[in-house]
């Protein structure tokens, strides 16, 4: 058991709820662009955004990652302020490494580019 996390590029998005949950049409396309295992600091940030938007349980929900979210991730990377989540349930609680920040900044650039091409970016964290 653990936290599996994936970012996807999606086509055929039918709607995005106020919490960011994505509903796709019957002819949607979905391709994974990045997978993480137990990057709880990143999941914690995305989960906090989901909760602020009125979400209740993000586990297995496919959630939109829009430009605001991408810019927030970038800001945390540039300032090196992503915080590991506390407690046994979250697993690894080591500080985010420079390499992880660098990889995440590359993902931010890729997600921005994909949005510019008309794709929707989705995130799903699974316990």
What report would you give on this structure?
By secondary structure, the protein is α+β, with helices and mostly antiparallel strands. Helices cover 35% and strands 30% of the residues. It has a four-stranded antiparallel sheet with strand order 2-1-4-3, with helices on one face. A hairpin with a 5-residue loop joins strand 1 (4-16) and strand 2 (22-37).
Task: Chart the SSEs and their pairings.
Blueprint: E1 4-16, E2 22-37, H1 40-52, E3 63-64, H2 67-79, H3 98-116, E4 120-126
Antiparallel strand pairs: 1-2, 1-4, 3-4
Helix pairs in contact: 2-3
* Order of SSEs: EEHEHHE
Distance between the termini: 7 Å
What amount of the residues lies in strands? 25-35%
Tell me the number of strands: 4
Could you tell me the mean pLDDT?
A: 93
Global morphology:
globular
In the sheet with the most strands, the strands line up as 2-1-4-3
- As residue ranges, the low-confidence spans are none
Helix content: 25-40%
Over the alpha carbons, how many angstroms does the gyration radius reach? 14 Å
Task: State the gist of this model.
With 127 residues, the protein is of the alpha+beta class. The chain has 3 helices and 4 strands, in the order ββαβααβ.
């Amino acid at each position: 058991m653990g936290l599996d996390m994936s970012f996807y590029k999606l086509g055929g998005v039918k709607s995005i709820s106020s919490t960011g949950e994505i509903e796709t049409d019957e002819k949607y396309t979905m391709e994974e662009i990045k997978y993480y295992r137990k990057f709880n600091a990143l999941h914690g940030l995305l989960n906090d955004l989901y909760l602020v938007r009125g979400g209740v349980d993000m586990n297995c929900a496919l959630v939109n990652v829009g430009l605001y979210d991408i810019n927030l991730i970038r800001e945390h990377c540039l300032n090196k302020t992503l915080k590991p989540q506390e407690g046994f349930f979250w697993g690894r609680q080591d500080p985010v490494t420079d390499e992880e920040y660098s990889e995440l900044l590359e993902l931010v650039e890729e997600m921005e580019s994909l949005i510019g091409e008309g794709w929707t970016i989705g995130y799903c964290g699974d316990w």
